[in-house]
Design a protein that fits this description.
The complex is a heterodimer of chains A (350) and B (246). By secondary structure, chain A is mainly α. Chain A has a two-stranded antiparallel sheet with strand order 1-2. Chain A is globular, with a radius of gyration of 25 Å. Chain B has 246 residues and is an all-alpha fold. Chain B is built from nine helices and no strands. Chain B is globular, with a radius of gyration of 18 Å. Classes of the chains: A mainly alpha (350), B mainly alpha (246). At the A-B interface, helix 4, helix 5, helix 8, helix 13 and helix 14 of A face helix 1, helix 2, helix 3, helix 6 and helix 7 of B. Chain B: One of its GO terms (molecular function) is phenylacetyl-CoA 1,2-epoxidase activity.
């Protein structure tokens, strides 16, 4: 989208411009925006966009970024205990990727005029959320595999359509994120397969992990369509391309045959193929648990957030030092340049 | 598993590979402990990157002389040959950076020398020296920021440099099979570290560069107390399932 760029404040605020003229101008901008969205064009940072669109994107991108950095915790919990050096390398690389995803996403939010610091403050003070899935604990090594297979699998199902999101920087960040996530999912599946085909104890560990992660993974798609507050508008803006229930069904349809290949069962007695629908039917999700965890009563809500706050507080002196050093360096450089201008090269700092 | 031909100097090579490999393995583990707790998101990425490089080096070195997992997970504390410096707990970010500065400066010199020779580690060293150059650059930049940052960061960085100083002498004790000029390396190391600390407005520590144990204690399998707890955590799961594959 290129027709209308930002910078309207000066013109709309200029004296002598009537209210009617301002309204007409606003309507013209909206029409261009709507037409761009309808034509599947990308909205770019300098384009005019409705404030509600901007706010909705910031909310979604921030929640996604926060989920990446909080999501490092349950997996980092096993880095120091990974049972082979190969698994350790894979897990470290995965947790590193999540930090990288956090960086891209906070940068995408910055293109909308919201700084990383501002968003981190909102995370730390509980004013912005992260995915509730990370409020469940990783109790055994198999949980690392189950997270890769199910949680990353659900995330990919959610995120692949975001590569076509109407907002350019978010869509482009998601292309890269999705490539890495699909590697994560494969490694999770492969780790579970090794456990499932391993000793009796390893198989039991894998089954237990899948039993605990299956339902929370289904909840990752968010509340049912008729209870989702953001879906309709987000779909109209082409931020979101499919409803929560559609994506959840897509995930179940993919996961069931994978579970069979793994030699593991899914903890849902109602799970069966429905010939008529061409989809798997599945049992009722415990939405009371979902809302309860979302409200802060999950097994790890307190722990995840306090660990994040602690890391941020412990790091404050480091960030201050970096800022102070950069400032000194900037001043030195400035002085050196001034000396050069006045012909006193020799006095410039060593 | 190794397919390297066993030479008459096999025991010598084993000892050398374990010394270098254990250094990398143990420091990688310590850096991995930072995951999720780094002071800024960019450092989550950087510390993990360094940890992964070191783990890669460790896997190559250990695989030269045995099964990497048997060596990492089934040896007792007294059989590890890493220098005591790398097993020191992370402490605050300044301690981690001081440890990185001391170690990466040493490792860069070491791999530089090994890469230019024709010994069993030349191939690994040629590749690793590029990684380690980045590690040293990272440590040096942070040493400058922390040393010449705020009063608090200066104080913390000085304390960290002082505390870890006594573990640096061990790095230059000759290791049989590591065919480098240790004395030349030590003077180059001192010159480099002195230069960085000076530019960081820090004082070069004055204390002795060896601890209460005889110099080279880690290389002989004598470690500090935190190391036992570190490998207990590292080895627990693997040891709980004897014979399992992962």
């Amino acid at each position: 989208m290129t027709a209308v760029t930002a910078g309207t404040a000066e013109t709309t605020g200029a004296p002598g411009v009537s209210d009617a003229a301002v309204a007409a101008e606003q309507a013209a901008y909206e029409a261009v925006f709507d037409a761009a969205v309808a034509a599947d064009e990308r909205i770019e940072p300098r384009d005019w966009m409705p404030e509600a669109y901007r706010a909705s994107l910031v909310r979604q991108i921030a929640q996604h970024a926060h989920s990446e950095i909080i999501g490092m915790q349950p997996e980092a919990n096993w880095i120091t205990r990974a049972p082979s050096l190969r698994r350790k390398a894979i897990l470290m690389a995965k947790v590193q990727d999540e930090a990288g995803h956090g960086l891209y996403l906070y940068s995408a939010a910055e293109t909308l005029g919201t700084s990383r610091d501002e968003l981190l403050d909102k995370l730390h003070s509980g004013r912005q959320k992260y995915s509730s899935i990370f409020n469940y604990p990783t109790l055994t090594w198999a949980d690392v595999g189950a997270i890769g297979w199910l949680v990353d699998g659900a995330a990919i199902t959610n995120q692949v359509p975001l590569c076509r999101c109407s907002y350019g920087p978010y869509a482009r960040a998601m292309v890269r994120v999705c490539k890495e996530e699909s590697f994560h999912q494969r490694q999770g599946y492969e780790a579970l397969l090794a456990l499932s085909r391993g000793t009796e104890a390893q198989h039991a560990m894998a089954q237990d992990a899948v039993d605990r992660w299956w339902w929370p993974s289904l909840m990752m798609f968010g509340p049912p369509d008729d209870e989702s507050t953001h879906t309709a508008q987000a779909m109209a803006w082409k931020i979101k391309r499919h409803s929560n229930d559609e994506l959840r069904q897509r995930f179940v349809d993919i996961a069931v045959p994978q579970a069979e290949a793994l030699g593991l069962t899914l903890p849902d007695p109602d799970l069966r193929w429905n010939e008529e629908r061409g989809h798997y039917d599945f049992g009722a999700i415990d939405w009371a648990e979902f809302w309860d965890v979302l409200k802060g009563n999950g097994p790890c809500n307190e722990e995840r957030l306090s660990r994040r706050r602690q890391a941020h507080e412990d790091g404050a002196w480091v960030r201050e030092a970096a800022a102070a050093h950069a400032e000194k360096h900037r001043v030195d450089k400035h002085h050196a340049e001034q000396h050069q201008h006045t012909g006193k090269h020799g006095e410039a700092q060593a | 598993m190794s397919t390297t031909p066993v030479t008459s100097g096999a025991a010598v090579i084993t000892g050398a590979a374990l010394a270098l490999g254990d250094d990398a393995l143990v420091l990688s583990h310590r850096l991995g402990e930072w995951a999720g707790s780094a002071p800024v998101l960019e450092e989550e990425v950087a510390l993990a990157n360094i940890a992964l490089d070191l783990l890669g080096q460790a896997r190559i070195l250990l695989s030269l002389v045995g099964d990497e997992d048997e060596l990492a997970y089934l040896r007792e504390e007294r059989s590890f040959r890493n220098a005591q410096l790398v097993e020191q707990p992370n402490g605050d970010f300044a301690h981690t950076i001081a440890r990185q500065l001391y170690f990466s400066t040493y490792q860069r010199l070491l791999y530089g020398q090994l890469a230019s020779g024709d010994g069993p580690f030349a191939g690994l060293a040629a590749k690793a020296v590029k990684e380690v150059a980045y590690h040293q650059d990272h440590a040096e930049h942070w040493a400058l920021r922390l040393g010449d940052g705020t009063d608090e960061s200066h104080r913390r960085m000085q304390r960290a440099c002082d505390a870890l100083w006594r573990y640096t002498g061990e790095l230059f004790q000759p290791v049989e099979g590591v065919d480098v000029d240790h004395a030349a390396m030590e003077s180059a190391w001192l010159a480099s570290v002195t230069d960085v600390l000076g530019r960081a407005t820090l004082t070069v520590p004055e204390g002795p560069r060896t601890g209460a144990w005889a110099a080279g204690a880690g290389r002989q399998g004598l470690h500090t107390e935190p190391f036992g707890r570190m490998i207990a955590e590292m080895q627990h799961l693997h040891r709980s399932h004897p014979g399992a594959t992962w």
